[in-house]
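F.,

This is the one I mentioned.
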């Protein structure tokens, strides 16, 4: 541990080369490079002092089974070794079905995400900020894969903090999908308060506004087209006050980038300004902050969003134009969807989106009212 940088001095970035050539298969939404794009962009922008970069270690079995079933972990290892899955493992562990394919690094990649996130939490023992964009697989279940997630690295990170003795933690999830795996893992644990903002009516169809998981969760299911103005209202009227009230020792922030307007898997309309503003607000609310990634299926918008988060954490102003090196990183991407055939120039030449302000709809206001009610009767 002595060789590791101190995240209290300046933020630390945990990455890994495992993400660069790893793909869930050519037709899967996770065919695209995301973490490597973010890492390449922050280097190309001149934003990464290499002394702040830490390689994510692969998590060992003992730390993974702190949450996950040992039989399930062995099934992931078998699938990686044989590049196939038995009928029994498929049925029991949901490997090889429902968007959770057998792929080359099916054990090593999620174990690296888990190792990076657990290291991030250990490194913040005495405080500080760590960005680990390879983490964020919030749908993973103790004994099955779910929603492109095999292990649940946020849960493993939060358990690391609990094992260190922290007992007032906030988990905030900005992904377009409900953070169901994390909420359920801490359903009966008042030490972890979970807040999830997600698109209403979208998979996994949980996380209704009245679902408080026994009291220590809040859910903000937002309507299609949710814009920056609406997100700001939720942040200022619901999210920030709820966090302040708890005076957390640590905040775990999941920044799945699929709530951005150009994401192909959801129908929300945020610009990356909404993410960056939320990161900036949340950072001031606790002495420890771990920021992870999550969903996000347009490589241009995910890479630009997450690179900008690193800039925000470091108080680096985002210039109006990318550097030539960053532009080359973006131009080298390929994106096998209609929008990828003729990408707009701004995906190459800017990191900051145009703000997507708009009317704050009544349904968003009533969502804020409902979520901040002391009790849910009537
Ligand atoms: Zn998602």
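My design for it:
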């Amino acid at each position: 541990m002595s060789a590791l940088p101190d995240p209290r001095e300046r933020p630390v970035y945990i990455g890994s080369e495992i993400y660069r050539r790893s793909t869930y298969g050519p037709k899967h939404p996770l065919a695209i490079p995301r973490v490597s794009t973010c890492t390449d962009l922050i280097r190309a922008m001149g934003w990464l002092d290499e002394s702040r970069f830490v390689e994510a270690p692969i998590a060992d079995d003992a730390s993974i089974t702190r949450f996950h079933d040992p039989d399930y972990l062995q099934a992931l290892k078998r699938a990686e070794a044989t590049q196939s899955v038995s009928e029994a493992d498929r049925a029991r562990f949901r490997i090889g079905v429902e968007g959770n394919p057998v792929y080359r690094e099916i054990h090593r990649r999620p174990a690296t995400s888990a190792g990076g996130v657990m290291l991030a939490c250990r490194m913040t023992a005495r405080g500080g900020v760590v960005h680990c964009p390879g983490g964020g697989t919030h749908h993973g279940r103790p004994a099955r894969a779910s929603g492109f997630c095999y292990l649940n690295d946020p849960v493993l990170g939060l358990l690391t903090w609990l094992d260190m003795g922290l007992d007032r933690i906030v988990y905030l999830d900005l992904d377009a999908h409900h953070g169901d795996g994390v909420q359920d893992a801490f359903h009966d644990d008042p030490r972890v308060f979970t807040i999830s903002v997600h698109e209403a009516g979208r998979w996994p169809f949980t996380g209704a506004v009245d679902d408080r998981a026994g009291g220590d969760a809040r859910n903000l299911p937002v309507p299609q087209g949710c814009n920056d103005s609406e997100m700001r209202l939720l942040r200022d009227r619901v999210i920030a006050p709820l966090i302040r009230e708890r005076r957390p020792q640590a905040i775990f922030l999941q920044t799945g980038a699929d709530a951005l307007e150009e994401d192909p898997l959801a129908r929300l309309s945020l610009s990356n300004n909404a993410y960056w503003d939320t990161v900036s607000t949340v950072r001031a609310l606790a002495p420890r902050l771990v920021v992870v990634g999550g969903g996000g299926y347009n490589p241009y918008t995910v890479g630009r969003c997450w690179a900008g988060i690193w800039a925000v954490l470091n108080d680096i102003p985002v210039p109006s134009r990318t550097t030539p090196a960053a532009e080359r990183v973006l131009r080298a991407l390929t994106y096998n969807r209609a929008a990828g055939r003729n990408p707009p120039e701004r995906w190459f030449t800017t990191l900051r989106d145009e703000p997507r302000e708009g009317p704050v709809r009544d349904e968003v206001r009533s969502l804020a009212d409902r979520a901040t009610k002391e009790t849910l009767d009537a």
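The radius of gyration is 19 Å.

Talk soon.
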